Amino acid sequence: MNQSQDGLQQQATSGNVCFVQSYAKINLTLDVLGKRADGYHELATIMQTIDLYDTICLTRLAEDRVSMNCNRPELSNDYNLVVRAVQAVRQKLGLHQGLAIELHKRVPVAAGLGGGSSNAAATLLALQQWWNLPLSMQDLWEIAASLGSDIPFFLTGGLALCEGRGERITPLASHWPATMRWLLLVKPDISVSTAMVYRNLTPDDYTNGGWSRAAEVALQTQSKLQASDLYNSLERGVLEQYAEVARARQEMLDAGAHYVRLSGSGPTLFTTFDTLTEAAAVQQKLQSQSYEAYLTHAIHPGNNPITYF
Ligand code: C5P
């Protein structure tokens, strides 16, 4: 029996519908070390999965086609990373099983929270488990890395150091919320192009990776991070280029945030609080100024529930 037949055989034993939750991330540190010959930037970044998620529903179709529907109509197309992940699996294994994809977005889009990357990784994991596909973690990692720099992180999630383009993952033990329990995210009402943010970096923004290394050591030795351990090489450029982001940062500080950091290439900003009372009060102030503000927290890996019927 070849791989394709094996995959199809297994499908007969599983249900017709699969739901998977797909969690966002923040970057606790993001060191850009420099520009590479391939045009990407060399990174050292510590990412943490957070309790803010999209839901993907996959339904088997009788015909050999893949359809996509999203509650954000601008994402209902074949460029969507969920469609590309499904097509990559079908192609690798020579599968002809059709699928209808429904994607319920709750995570802000193009926001520095890895929503699209997480959707792709969750889809790969769901297909592998649902159809019991003959794909190793290395196969999944290769497909993930070919679709985007952040996607391999989401195959394991939790807390991890991500290096290279972002695709080389070292899992770290997650004790971060022990010191900073509640996470408040504020999404300014603009979109930021990741490619543009990287293009606008100056050599002064580059680091030797020291922030991420120091944070890794702090997590290993003290099991905790302080606000002063957090860093993002992309922050200066984004704050300078986008007045909306600089304004939101100031509003967060005025509302009672002790510090503010950018997640990824933004525009989402985050801060943390030890108590829910304090976090909720600041969230409320920002929401009363019409900011999109999410109160959430870090989560461990394994929080990617997959359900089939
Ligand atoms: O890999 P991904 O498609 O997510 O990256 C989006 C864009 O961000 C890339 O086209 C590139 O311009 C920039 N990028 C980069 N260095 C990285 C990751 C992303 O320059 N390590």
TrEMBL record:
Known catalytic reactions: 4-CDP-2-C-methyl-D-erythritol + ATP = 4-CDP-2-C-methyl-D-erythritol 2-phosphate + ADP + H(+)
Sequence positions that bind ATP: P108, V109, A110, A111, G112, L113, G114, G115, G116, S117, S118
SUPFAM superfamilies reported in the protein's UniProt record: GHMP Kinase, C-terminal domain, Ribosomal protein S5 domain 2-like
Pathway connected to this protein: Isoprenoid biosynthesis; isopentenyl diphosphate biosynthesis via DXP pathway; isopentenyl diphosphate from 1-deoxy-D-xylulose 5-phosphate: step 3/6
Active site as annotated: K25, D150
DNA damage is among the record's keywords: no
GO biological process: isopentenyl diphosphate biosynthetic process, methylerythritol 4-phosphate pathway; terpenoid biosynthetic process
Domain of life: Bacteria
Keyword terms of this UniProt record: ATP-binding, Isoprene biosynthesis, Kinase, Nucleotide-binding, Transferase
Domain spans labelled GHMP kinase C-terminal: 229-289
Enzyme Commission code(s) on record: 2.7.1.148
Enzyme class: transferase
Record bears the keyword Iron: no
Annotated signal sequence range: none
NCBIfam families in the cross-refs: ispE
Function: Catalyzes the phosphorylation of the position 2 hydroxy group of 4-diphosphocytidyl-2C-methyl-D-erythritol.
Name of protein: 4-diphosphocytidyl-2-C-methyl-D-erythritol kinase
The organism of origin for this protein: Dictyobacter alpinus
